[in-house]
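Components:
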Amino acid sequence: MNRVPLEKKILGENDRIAASLRERYRESGTLCVNLISSPGSGKTTLLEKTLDALPRTQRVAVLTGDIQTENDATRLKRFGFPVRQITTGGTCHLDASMIERHLADWSLNDIDLLVIENVGNLVCPSSYDLGEAAKIVLLSVTEGEDKPLKYPSIFFKSELLVITKTDLLPYVPFNLAAAEENAKRVHPGMEILRVSCTKGDGLHEWLSWLERRRQAQAPETQALV
Amino acid sequence: MNRVPLEKKILGENDRIAASLRERYRESGTLCVNLISSPGSGKTTLLEKTLDALPRTQRVAVLTGDIQTENDATRLKRFGFPVRQITTGGTCHLDASMIERHLADWSLNDIDLLVIENVGNLVCPSSYDLGEAAKIVLLSVTEGEDKPLKYPSIFFKSELLVITKTDLLPYVPFNLAAAEENAKRVHPGMEILRVSCTKGDGLHEWLSWLERRRQAQAPETQALV
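Structure:
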């Protein structure tokens, strides 16, 4: 079975489209981030809190991926920003061509921050460049501190780790220091934030991170918050 | 890109090996179950509780899959049963050839219950038959009640849903009835158990389910517990 060369060809084609998307984001000054985690780590909830905190005048858009259902787009649309669901119908990750297709009638010149919420999967999405400026991995405290060592690829490729659901720390056997140490073993330069969407802890730091990252992408645009 | 025919070929080859494994399990009267869930849903912890509860005289063996690390095998070996780690090195699921290879020097005639713990991934493992008698999907209450609708394939193909970490119900916005209803929408005949490994709730029902299922596979062998 000639699988590896075919995977290389698929990834090569993906990389070509991703490079073209990256060039378009650069031209329009759009910061594109790609959120990746296990199912249920809190990507959609973090996005709800993010959209809720941003002034409606901000030029933010979301593409949210799932295998089935439009649930996440429904949850996110109520904040008034453009949100589009990408339903993969079985595919375990988003790829660059899906992004290109779903951006077709959006003008990137009108978008300062484009957030992509990937399919819930800590493995496969790490292989697919979507042209994003940064991958961001979420890990909830209920999942265990060993995950960076078990799933190193996504932790190695992500600029930022957001440790979510810290409000549950009193009730779960999660060693926060060990989790952070494991992440740094895989990716020494990784930035790490601790967030509880329920209590609001760390949301300010998260919004500041996004703003700082966006300024780096397009220093002349208006501040997000 | 000619991806679909190649995937069919790979899955066809996998199915051929899985069928041969299934025949071997049948001949030896071995019950093989395949545990699948997101990372951090508690597969290894459930197995720890299971092995701890079983008499050492029982003929139970475990194959545990991960992308990297031997952590889970280390955790499980201390109960005295044969345990072998399958490290996939990047692959997002176990396939039948990995099982065949790792069983090579084990005699199935000496194993009444073979538990396979798949790679933590709610998507890809559902496509790979390992010759098991039953797939079992775990869903922790921290992941959200919408998961059966978002990841229908694995819920459709699993005989049993184990809802884990029920001790965390007071602290998370998880609607147990809705989760079970969503699972039944995808798979009307699905059996469902609720388990807290921390408190011990539901473990007796889980062990009884395994025993009942094993009796169905090989009615003449000695009871597990």
